[in-house]
Amino acid sequence: MTAATTSAAGVPAAPAPATPWLEAFDVHGVRMTLTVPGDPGEAAAAAEVVRRLATETAPRWERVPGTLGGTALRARVLDEAGAALDGLGLVHWALSSDGDVLASGSPRPRRQPPLEALELHDPAALGKPWRSAVVDGAAVADVALAGIPGWHAALAVRHRGEDERRRLVAVLASSATAANSLAERLVAGDPAAPGPLEDRLDADGAAALIVAAGRDPLVSPRWPLAGAAWAPQGAPAP
Amino acid sequence: MRFTQRMLGGVASVSMAAAGVLGLTAASSPPLPRGQTAAVASAHGQASSPRVAARAAGWRRVDASALLGGAPADVTASVRDRGSRSGRATVLS
After folding, report:
1. What pTM was computed for the model?
2. Do B92 and A195 touch (CB under 8 A)?
């Protein structure tokens, strides 16, 4: 395992208060990042919690201790880390594990959101949501992850095949575990006929994108176009 | 001769009428080349080609440019990061 602390500019230095703080470290070959806007001390404490979870607790969940081999386990790490950050009272953060993302709040939160807006659970009061790009060499799509306290937004990306058989699947869901499960099933199925998973996507309030070589992208009804925001089911609209 | 012509004409018209009742017109039932049967059937909802199945389930095809909003990314979800030990996993605007 190696650990590194890197600022937004790639230089180990304390960022300005308004700049999101990025912690990046490898856990048994799995690259994890934690991005927290605001106070560096708060961010460092959060990073320590996530690092301990990933390096000390999560390996015990695996059948072969000391590995983080499966995507399901990595997704569980994200969800458990998100819950731990919630437990610390942190609202604004983004986690990634080998390219999958789980986010809450905003990268540039409003310093003093109106109390009334908070009571009404108005997500706009917290600041603009995290913008996430789906990248496969180049940007394929970008979406806003409208996470607010209590509602996480997860984005999982999977691919299979090469050249003319290559396909990429991206899934938005309210947890990393749900996003991983749906993405794995979609990427294993027929990219031109994902219909059988429609009920599962609907039940989870999830959204999916399938990009297969030589075809126009296929999107499920809730996939946000043109950089629009996706919100977990039941969450206030962004 | 005229009787024979009338008989043949009558038989032909009765045959045409019977075919009409049965819905057997030349235009409605052309022989289908091999491979086209399923496509025609799917157009009538009797079978499913992949595209029809996707559309029926609420999925839709969009132009690739419709997926991009143009705003800089705060975080990146990428298949390239999988298993990588180097490079930046997060891009901050």
Report:
1. 0.71
2. no
Q: For residue A97, what are the CA distances in angstroms to A16, A116, A156, A228, B49?
A: 25, 35, 10, 23, 37
C-alpha atoms less than 13 angstroms from C-alpha of B29 in its C-beta half-sphere: 7
One DSSP character per residue, B45-81 reads TSS--HHHHHHHTT-EE--GGGG---PPPSEEEEGGG
A218: closest CA among A186, A176, A188? A186
Cα B7 to chain centroid distance, Å, stands at 47
> What is the distance in angstroms between the Cα of A193 and the nearest Cα belonging to chain B?
5
Distant-in-sequence, close-in-space partners of A62: CB < 8 Å, separation ≥ 6: A68, A69, A70, A73
Mean pLDDT split into 10-residue runs, chain A, 238 residues: 37 46 73 83 85 80 62 87 89 88 88 63 73 91 80 92 88 94 89 77 89 92 92 74
How many Cβ atoms are within 10 Å of A55's Cβ, its own excluded?
17
CB < 8 Å to B70, chain A? 142, 227
CA distance A22 to B90: 8
Flag if A101 and B77 touch (Cβ within 8 Å): yes
Residue pLDDT, tens place only, B4-28: 555 555 555 544 444 444 434 333 3
For residue A20, the chain B residue with the least C-alpha distance is B92
